[in-house]
Design a protein that fits this description.
Rossmann fold; elongated; eight-stranded mixed β-sheet; single chain; alpha/beta; 19 strands
Length: 408
């Protein structure tokens, strides 16, 4: 693979990205721009990659590097990608080794932009990003946060470990010898909303009603959608995981906050996947002071009321016509029926298009790295997903969603 590095202050973060690629067994060729070497020198890249580095097309010219490097790559990642580099790539300019490599590459290309907010939002950059995406380049949305100096805003390079995870996800979906830039970016141009985590209903300033959801499956869904080219809004309820690269994260605490955030984002969404675990009930009255223990050992009486059913509301009202709605069901089975019996009844009751069913008997799934499920559809079909990574399950879910999306 090729790691392109353009001239931004975030170039130092690419060292960590290179380390992760190398340690996971990838053969990495680093191609920096001349400006990038002002931030991180050639000896650093050579030491970390085990290969010499060059910025121009004249070094080792007998090996025709300006053509060979791109031709032989399975993946090209540019991190950071500056406004200047993306402008050159969008217009087919080739004045150094990296831009030549981008012109000759026939493999998937990932660009992780990093720049000041004003530069990211400038009409020229917006147009260049749209052009690159239309050609099948996966341009990752930059993160929000601290920029150069005291400035903050959108334009920060996503964390290297998350760029690595996105690229690993993309590579895992490529067929050997793939020669397409798109690399299966079947959600390009689509906006999807994913909820994740478990909501908390406050009892008093220190206690709450909640559940064991870690948010891992929701985050895997968000990461997988971003790797397939989607614009992703992730509504996260009490999750401590790092933000997936290229994903807008909206943080909430209670079920009411989750409902408001999901419904707001769903108005412009092609698909909504409700992977979060909302609390079914909330206390009618919340104490503004800590509830004390009674001297006689008696327990306080807490009256609960039902929270809104977000999945049912989404399915019945459809904020955007034609949107695909996906729910999750964590079931254990009981005297009234098996896990699948209860899940089919829930699918009919909720009115969603797909229902991902987890058997959580004995606390399975919660917080685990892997998962297994059955994806039930409103048309009566079912897809069994054997135990595997939560990322693998996420892609099965998006396969089912993509098959049901109306033509754009």
């Amino acid at each position: 693979m090729v790691l392109g590095v353009s001239g931004g202050i975030a170039a130092y973060k690419a060292c960590e990205l290179l380390r992760r690629f190398s340690e996971s067994g990838h053969d990495v060729t680093v191609v920096p721009t001349a400006s990038a070497l002002e931030f991180v020198g050639a000896p650093t890249w050579a030491a970390l990659s085990g290969k010499p580095v060059a910025t121009d097309v004249w070094t080792s010219v007998h090996e025709v590097p300006h053509v060979r490097i791109g031709q032989s790559a399975d993946l090209v990642v540019v991190a950071p990608a500056t406004a200047d580099l993306m402008a050159k790539a969008a217009h087919g300019l080739a004045d150094d080794l990296l831009t030549n490599t981008l012109l000759t590459a026939r493999c998937p290309v990932v660009m992780a932009p990093a720049m000041h907010t004003e530069m990211w939002e400038h009409a020229a950059t917006v147009a260049n990003v749209a052009t690159l995406r239309s050609r099948g380049v996966l341009v990752v949305e930059p993160a929000e946060g601290r920029l150069t100096g005291a400035d903050t805003g959108k334009g920060r390079l996503p964390e290297p470990e998350e760029i690595f995870e996105l690229c690993r996800d993309l590579l895992g979906r490529l067929s050997p010898g793939s020669t397409t830039h798109s690399g299966g970016l079947d959600l390009t141009g689509r906006h999807v909303v994913v909820s994740a985590g478990g909501t908390r209903e406050r009892l008093d300033p220190v206690r709450f009603l909640g559940n064991r959801s870690s948010g891992r499956q929701g985050y895997a869904l968000a990461r997988a959608a971003a790797a397939r080219g989607a614009e992703v809004t992730l509504v996260a309820a009490n999750v401590t995981l790092p933000d997936p690269a290229g994903v807008k994260v909206v943080r909430v605490e209670s079920t009411a906050e989750l409902r408001d955030a999901v419904l707001s984002a769903a108005a412009a969404a092609d698909a909504v996947v409700m992977a979060a675990a909302p609390a079914d009930f909330r206390p009618v009255h919340r104490s503004e002071t800590k509830i004390k223990k009674a001297e006689d050992g008696s327990a306080p009486s807490i009256t609960l009321e039902q929270n809104p059913d977000i999945l049912k509301e989404l399915s019945s009202e459809r904020p955007r016509p034609g949107a695909v709605i996906v729910g999750f069901a964590a079931e254990t089975g009981d005297d009234s029926g098996s896990v699948l019996d209860l899940a089919r009844a829930k699918l009919a009751r909720k009115g969603c298009d797909l229902l991902v069913v987890n058997d959580v008997s004995g606390g399975a799934v919660f917080g685990a790295e892997d998962n297994e499920a059955v994806v039930l559809a409103a048309d009566g079909t079912a897809v069994d997903v054997p135990r595997g990574s939560k990322g693998a399950l996420a892609h099965v879910i998006w396969d089912q969603v993509a098959a049901r999306l109306p033509s754009s």
